[in-house]
Write the C-alpha cells for this entry.
Amino acid sequence: MTDIFNTENLLVGRVGRLLAFLEYANNFYIAIGKSSPWTNDYGVGINDNNPPKPNINLSNIPETIIYKKVETVIPAVASNTCADINLDSKDFEVLAEGSLVQKTYNFIKPDKIYYSNGELRAYPTHLYISTKVEYTDYDTSSFRAIGFYTSIDLKQGVDRNKLIVLPNEVNKGLIHWASYSTPVERIEGKTHHIEFMMQL
C-alpha cells in the first residue's frame, strides 16, 4: 500500500517567520537605480516607454544610486481575510491604496498578534514596507528601478545610523523585491512615496 502524507504550512510558523523577519527591520533599505534609459539590451522592444520586467534571478538593481533606510514596516493582512479575527477595531489601521493592487489591508500592531496566554490572535500574511525619497536625497535626473534589501553589509567606517548610503559604502545586500518603471523624474520639491506589500 502506498503511504499517504497530507501536509500543510501552519499558521503559527508563518506568523513566526514574519515576526522573525521583522526583528531585522533596522537593516531594511529601499534602493533606487537605473539613471540611464532602458534599451533593447534588456530585450526586444524595451525602451523608456516599455520597461522590462525584473528577472527572478536578479541579485541587484542596475546602476544603484542610493540605499535609503525603510521608514515604516508593519504586519498586515488583506481585509477580506479578517472576518474570523475577533479584534477590536482600534487594533487595526485600515489602508486603502491603488498602488497596493487595489486591495484594502488591515495593519496589525505587533503586540496584538498574540493573546496574553501566547495563543495567536491575528494572522498577518504580509509586511507593509514604505519610505519617502526626497529630491534632495539623490542628484540624478531620474530613476527607473527600485529594490528592497535586507542584510546590508556596510563597509568599515560607515555610520550604521545613516539614513542614506551610497553604493560605494556597501559591500553587499540581499534583495527581496524589485520594480522597473518608466522614468521617475527628479523634480524640485517632489517627494516620492515608495510602498509595497511583501508576502512571507
Confidence is low (pLDDT under 50) at residues 81-90.
